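Database export, one record per block. Field names are fixed; values are copied verbatim from the stored entry.
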Amino acid sequence: MIFFKHINAIKEKIMAMLPSVFNASEHDASSGFESIPAGIYIAEIVKSKMKDTKDGTGKYLMLQFKIIEGDFSKRFVFINLNLVNKSAEAVQIAKSNLKSIVVACGLGDDYELEDSVDLHNTAMGIKVEIKPASGKWPASNEIKRFYKEEDMPEQDADNPFE
């Protein structure tokens, strides 16, 4: 048993080996990402995962969207959908959003989704707003609406949501 413990420790150490020596003094530190401006973007879901809520009483579907066109191409925006929650209102909002995403993916109004991977890699429009900073949390993006790519509204520079 001890032998296997040592082998696993060696494997863990090997797994952490970098391909070359990294000299931190040769690089600038990341300043992080600022929120993207409010607007409508073409994006696709690139990652999804069911997770437990912090209190362990519910589950949410985490969806990671990647913007695929425009000035903010390759930036990510996230939404969490509370599919199992003690708040019936949170569940209803999550299911309404999930239906909108299914429809925006072109899967149809009556599609029966079993696996969130069915939503991946399909271009759609997303309406992004900025949630103001609150307490210790900085301003962040929120996805407020989903569109089939062909149904996206034109953006007016003076009013990006109309």
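Remark 1: Residues 88-104 form the longest helix (17 residues).
Remark 2: DSSP finds two helices and five strands in the chain.
End of record.
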